[in-house]
C-alpha cells in the first residue's frame, strides 16, 4: 500500500516538473527578445536581461528593448506611437562625434525626425542600426510613463455617482418601509392574556403595553374583539 502511494507521489512530482519546464519555455518564447553584441559576438537574449552599456542590434520588425543612442544606422525608421500617439514612423540618425550621449538622453524626448535616440517598446519598421543602451526598466521613457500612471487617482464616473445616489435613496426608503411595517404589525396584534398572571399584555385603547385584570381582558371571537364580564 505504501509503495503504491509513493509511486503516485512520484508521478505527480514528475508531472509538475514537466509542466514547470513547459511554462518556462512558453514564457521565454512570449517575452521580447533582444539581439546584443557582447565580447564581439551577437547573442539573442531575453529583453529583461539587457543592461546599461550593452550594444543592441535593431532590425526591421524588432521591438527596441531599452532606451539607447544610435551609434550606426541605415535607413532606420521607428514607430513611436506607443509613446507619442503619432502613427507616422520617424526617421533616425546616428549620433555625431561632438554630441554627448548622456546629455542627449537627458534632453531629447520621443517624437520628431532625425533624432539619434531609440526608446524601449517602440517598433522598427524599416532599416537597421546598432545602439548603446542608456536606460532600462523604470528608467526608460516607458517606465517613467508607467510610474506616473501609478500616482493618478481615478475619479468616479457620472454613472457611478448617480448609481450611488440612487442606491442611497432606495436604502432610506426601504428602511422607512420596514419601520412602518413593524409599527403596523405591533398595533394589529390580538390582545392575549398573560400565561402566568392572567392580565392583558396590551392596552386595547391605544396599543400601549400594560396590564389589566383578567376579568376585563378582551378576547377574540370570530375575528371580533369582545370584553369579558364577570357573572
UniProtKB/TrEMBL annotation:
Stretch forming the signal peptide: none
Biased composition (Polar residues): 213-231
Phylogenetic placement of the source organism: Bacteria, Bacillati, Cyanobacteriota, Cyanophyceae, Oscillatoriophycideae
Pfam families in UniProt: E1-E2_ATPase (PF00122)
Name of this protein: P-type ATPase A domain-containing protein
Family annotation (InterPro entries): ATPase_P-typ_TM_dom_sf (IPR023298), ATPase_P-typ_transduc_dom_A_sf (IPR008250), ATPase_P-type_domA (IPR059000)
Region (Disordered): 193-231
Mode of membrane association: Multi-pass membrane protein
Domain P-type ATPase A as annotated: residue spans: 29-149
Source organism: Microcystis aeruginosa PCC 7806SL
SUPFAM superfamilies reported for this sequence: Calcium ATPase, transduction domain A, Calcium ATPase, transmembrane domain M
Subcellular location: Membrane
Amino acid at each position: 500500500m505504501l509503495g503504491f502511494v509513493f509511486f503516485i507521489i512520484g508521478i505527480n512530482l514528475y508531472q509538475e516538473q514537466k509542466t514547470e519546464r513547459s511554462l518556462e519555455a512558453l514564457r521565454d518564447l512570449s517575452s521580447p527578445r533582444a539581439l546584443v553584441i557582447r565580447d564581439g559576438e551577437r547573442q539573442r537574449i531575453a529583453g529583461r536581461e539587457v543592461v546599461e552599456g550593452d550594444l543592441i542590434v535593431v532590425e526591421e520588425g524588432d521591438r527596441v528593448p531599452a532606451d539607447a543612442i544610435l551609434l550606426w544606422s541605415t535607413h532606420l525608421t521607428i514607430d513611436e506611437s506607443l509613446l507619442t500617439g503619432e502613427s507616422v514612423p520617424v526617421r533616425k540618425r546616428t549620433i555625431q562625434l561632438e554630441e554627448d550621449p548622456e546629455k542627449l538622453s537627458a534632453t531629447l524626448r520621443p517624437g520628431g525626425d532625425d533624432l539619434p535616440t531609440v526608446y524601449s517598446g517602440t517598433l522598427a519598421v524599416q532599416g537597421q542600426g546598432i545602439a548603446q543602451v542608456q536606460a532600462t526598466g523604470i528608467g526608460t521613457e516607458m517606465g517613467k510613463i508607467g510610474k506616473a500612471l501609478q500616482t493618478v487617482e481615478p475619479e468616479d464616473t457620472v454613472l457611478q455617482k448617480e448609481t450611488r445616489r440612487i442606491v442611497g435613496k432606495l436604502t432610506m426608503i426601504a428602511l422607512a418601509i420596514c419601520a412602518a411595517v413593524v409599527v403596523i404589525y405591533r398595533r394589529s396584534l390580538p390582545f392575549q392574556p398573560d400565561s402566568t398572571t392572567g392580565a392583558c399584555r396590551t392596552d386595547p385603547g391605544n396599543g400601549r403595553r400594560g396590564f389589566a385584570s383578567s376579568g376585563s381582558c378582551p378576547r377574540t371571537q370570530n375575528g371580533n374583539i369582545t370584553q369579558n364580564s364577570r357573572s
